[in-house]
Design brief:
Blueprint (H helix, E strand, L loop, with lengths): L1 E5 L4 H5 L6 E10 L2 H13 L11 E3 L27 H6 L4 E4 L5 H10 L2 E4 L5 H5 L2 E8 L8 E15 L6 H12 L2
Parallel strand pairs: 1-2, 2-3, 3-4, 4-5
Antiparallel strand pairs: 2-7, 5-7, 6-7
Family: Belongs to the class-I fumarase family.
GO molecular function, one term: hydro-lyase activity
Organism: Clostridium frigidicarnis
Length: 185
Protein backbone atom coordinates (compact mmCIF):
# COMPACT_ATOMS: atom_id res chain seq x y z
CA UNK A 1 0.00 0.00 0.00
CA UNK A 2 1.39 3.43 -0.94
CA UNK A 3 1.02 6.23 1.59
CA UNK A 4 1.90 9.90 1.41
CA UNK A 5 3.19 11.66 4.50
CA UNK A 6 4.36 15.17 5.20
CA UNK A 7 6.89 16.03 7.87
CA UNK A 8 7.08 16.64 10.76
CA UNK A 9 6.66 12.95 11.53
CA UNK A 10 4.44 12.74 14.59
CA UNK A 11 3.67 9.64 16.65
CA UNK A 12 0.17 9.51 15.11
CA UNK A 13 1.65 9.37 11.60
CA UNK A 14 4.19 6.73 12.67
CA UNK A 15 1.47 4.49 14.16
CA UNK A 16 -0.24 4.39 10.75
CA UNK A 17 2.90 3.04 9.01
CA UNK A 18 3.38 -0.72 8.75
CA UNK A 19 6.35 -2.80 7.61
CA UNK A 20 6.13 -3.19 3.85
CA UNK A 21 4.27 0.09 3.18
CA UNK A 22 5.56 2.16 0.28
CA UNK A 23 5.73 5.78 1.39
CA UNK A 24 6.27 9.09 -0.37
CA UNK A 25 7.72 11.67 2.03
CA UNK A 26 7.33 15.40 1.48
CA UNK A 27 8.54 18.26 3.66
CA UNK A 28 11.77 18.84 5.58
CA UNK A 29 14.19 16.02 6.39
CA UNK A 30 17.82 16.12 7.47
CA UNK A 31 20.93 14.28 6.30
CA UNK A 32 23.60 12.85 8.57
CA UNK A 33 26.03 9.96 8.49
CA UNK A 34 28.25 8.40 11.12
CA UNK A 35 30.72 11.27 11.62
CA UNK A 36 27.88 13.75 12.13
CA UNK A 37 26.02 11.32 14.40
CA UNK A 38 29.12 11.00 16.58
CA UNK A 39 29.31 14.77 16.90
CA UNK A 40 25.62 15.00 17.80
CA UNK A 41 25.94 12.38 20.54
CA UNK A 42 29.12 14.05 21.83
CA UNK A 43 27.10 17.29 22.20
CA UNK A 44 24.38 15.40 24.06
CA UNK A 45 27.02 13.87 26.36
CA UNK A 46 28.27 17.39 27.16
CA UNK A 47 24.72 18.69 27.75
CA UNK A 48 25.07 21.10 24.82
CA UNK A 49 22.47 22.19 22.27
CA UNK A 50 22.24 20.30 18.99
CA UNK A 51 22.52 22.24 15.68
CA UNK A 52 19.05 20.98 14.75
CA UNK A 53 15.85 20.14 16.59
CA UNK A 54 15.41 16.38 16.20
CA UNK A 55 11.94 16.09 17.75
CA UNK A 56 9.52 14.64 15.18
CA UNK A 57 12.17 14.77 12.44
CA UNK A 58 13.55 12.30 9.92
CA UNK A 59 17.27 11.78 9.30
CA UNK A 60 18.37 10.36 5.95
CA UNK A 61 21.68 8.48 6.04
CA UNK A 62 23.21 9.90 2.88
CA UNK A 63 26.33 11.64 1.61
CA UNK A 64 24.98 13.25 -1.54
CA UNK A 65 27.04 14.17 -4.58
CA UNK A 66 27.43 17.83 -5.51
CA UNK A 67 24.49 19.47 -7.24
CA UNK A 68 24.50 19.95 -10.98
CA UNK A 69 23.65 23.44 -12.22
CA UNK A 70 19.99 24.21 -11.58
CA UNK A 71 19.55 21.31 -9.13
CA UNK A 72 19.31 21.38 -5.33
CA UNK A 73 21.41 18.24 -4.89
CA UNK A 74 23.17 15.55 -6.86
CA UNK A 75 22.62 11.83 -6.49
CA UNK A 76 21.39 10.92 -3.02
CA UNK A 77 21.51 7.19 -2.45
CA UNK A 78 21.23 5.72 1.06
CA UNK A 79 24.23 4.57 3.02
CA UNK A 80 24.37 1.44 5.15
CA UNK A 81 22.53 2.13 8.39
CA UNK A 82 24.40 -0.08 10.83
CA UNK A 83 27.19 2.54 11.07
CA UNK A 84 24.70 4.82 12.84
CA UNK A 85 23.53 2.10 15.25
CA UNK A 86 25.83 3.16 18.14
CA UNK A 87 24.23 6.65 18.04
CA UNK A 88 20.64 6.17 16.84
CA UNK A 89 19.06 5.10 20.16
CA UNK A 90 20.18 8.36 21.83
CA UNK A 91 18.58 10.43 19.07
CA UNK A 92 15.40 8.34 19.10
CA UNK A 93 15.18 8.78 22.87
CA UNK A 94 15.15 12.58 22.47
CA UNK A 95 12.43 12.63 19.83
CA UNK A 96 13.77 11.62 16.41
CA UNK A 97 10.86 9.80 14.72
CA UNK A 98 12.28 8.45 11.48
CA UNK A 99 15.47 7.21 9.87
CA UNK A 100 16.11 6.46 6.20
CA UNK A 101 18.95 4.20 5.09
CA UNK A 102 19.53 0.67 3.91
CA UNK A 103 20.29 -2.61 5.58
CA UNK A 104 19.73 -4.29 8.92
CA UNK A 105 19.54 -2.56 12.30
CA UNK A 106 20.85 -3.76 15.66
CA UNK A 107 18.58 -5.11 18.40
CA UNK A 108 19.32 -1.93 20.40
CA UNK A 109 18.01 0.28 17.59
CA UNK A 110 14.93 -1.91 17.13
CA UNK A 111 14.24 -1.68 20.88
CA UNK A 112 14.57 2.13 20.69
CA UNK A 113 12.21 2.22 17.68
CA UNK A 114 9.56 0.32 19.64
CA UNK A 115 10.17 2.22 22.90
CA UNK A 116 9.83 5.62 21.21
CA UNK A 117 7.18 4.87 18.53
CA UNK A 118 9.54 5.50 15.62
CA UNK A 119 10.05 4.08 12.14
CA UNK A 120 12.95 2.94 9.97
CA UNK A 121 12.58 3.43 6.24
CA UNK A 122 14.73 2.04 3.46
CA UNK A 123 15.53 3.98 0.34
CA UNK A 124 16.43 1.99 -2.73
CA UNK A 125 20.15 1.55 -3.20
CA UNK A 126 21.10 2.06 -6.84
CA UNK A 127 18.37 4.66 -7.36
CA UNK A 128 20.46 7.61 -6.17
CA UNK A 129 19.80 9.79 -9.22
CA UNK A 130 16.05 9.19 -8.97
CA UNK A 131 16.03 9.94 -5.24
CA UNK A 132 18.04 13.13 -5.85
CA UNK A 133 15.21 14.40 -8.07
CA UNK A 134 12.89 14.41 -5.04
CA UNK A 135 15.11 17.02 -3.35
CA UNK A 136 13.82 20.53 -4.04
CA UNK A 137 16.07 22.48 -1.64
CA UNK A 138 19.29 21.65 0.21
CA UNK A 139 21.21 23.70 2.75
CA UNK A 140 24.18 22.76 4.93
CA UNK A 141 23.22 23.55 8.53
CA UNK A 142 26.12 21.98 10.45
CA UNK A 143 29.57 20.42 10.12
CA UNK A 144 30.45 21.85 6.70
CA UNK A 145 33.98 20.50 7.27
CA UNK A 146 32.57 16.99 6.72
CA UNK A 147 31.90 17.77 3.05
CA UNK A 148 29.32 15.35 1.64
CA UNK A 149 28.66 14.11 5.19
CA UNK A 150 27.71 17.54 6.57
CA UNK A 151 24.25 17.84 8.07
CA UNK A 152 21.87 19.23 5.49
CA UNK A 153 18.31 20.44 5.71
CA UNK A 154 16.47 19.10 2.69
CA UNK A 155 13.06 19.98 1.36
CA UNK A 156 11.77 16.90 -0.43
CA UNK A 157 8.73 16.10 -2.50
CA UNK A 158 7.53 12.51 -2.83
CA UNK A 159 10.80 10.93 -1.69
CA UNK A 160 10.19 7.19 -2.25
CA UNK A 161 10.90 4.89 0.71
CA UNK A 162 9.65 1.63 2.17
CA UNK A 163 8.84 1.00 5.83
CA UNK A 164 11.31 -1.66 6.96
CA UNK A 165 10.79 -1.57 10.74
CA UNK A 166 7.54 -0.17 12.07
CA UNK A 167 6.84 1.12 15.58
CA UNK A 168 5.75 -2.34 16.71
CA UNK A 169 9.08 -3.85 15.66
CA UNK A 170 7.73 -5.67 12.60
CA UNK A 171 10.75 -6.08 10.34
CA UNK A 172 10.28 -6.35 6.57
CA UNK A 173 13.67 -8.03 6.18
CA UNK A 174 12.51 -10.87 8.43
CA UNK A 175 8.95 -10.96 7.06
CA UNK A 176 10.13 -11.02 3.44
CA UNK A 177 12.69 -13.73 4.08
CA UNK A 178 10.11 -15.91 5.85
CA UNK A 179 7.58 -15.44 3.05
CA UNK A 180 10.19 -16.37 0.48
CA UNK A 181 11.35 -19.47 2.38
CA UNK A 182 7.72 -20.52 2.96
CA UNK A 183 7.08 -20.22 -0.78
CA UNK A 184 9.82 -22.79 -1.45
CA UNK A 185 8.08 -25.45 0.65
Amino acid sequence: MEKKITTPLTADKVKDLKAGDSVLISGVIYTARDAAHKRLVDLLDKGEKLPLEVKDQVIYYVGPTPAKPGKALGSAGPTTSYRMDPYAPRLLDIGLKGMIGKGLRSPEVIDAIKRNCCVYFAAIGGAAALIGKSVKEAEVIAYDDLGAEAIRRLVVEDLPVVVVIDCEGNNLYEIGQKQYLDSLK
